[in-house]
Amino acid sequence: MRVWVDKETCIGCGVCVAIAPNYFKLDEDGKSVAIKEEVDPADEEIVRTAAQSCPTGSIKIEE
Predict the structure, then answer these.
(1) Could you give the number of structural domains in the chain?
(2) Interval 39-61 mean pLDDT
(3) pTM of the model as a whole
(4) What CATH number did the domain enclosing 27 receive?
(5) Measuring CA to CA, which of 5, 23, 42, 58 is 20 to 30 A from 14?
(6) Residues 6 or more apart from 40 whose CB is under 8 A from it?
């Protein structure tokens, strides 16, 4: 599974960072970026929760 953030729609609310800080951080523009694109199988549930919690649907998951 791979994950990335659509920076065009991200509003920088930080919910993804709060939920999955090992996978997301806020960059110098205050927008979220994926720290690691490849998701460890043990972390898939937490990354999915972060994606589902994103108010703008900016977190994209590729199976």
Answers:
(1) 1
(2) 98
(3) 0.93
(4) 3.30.70.20
(5) 42
(6) none
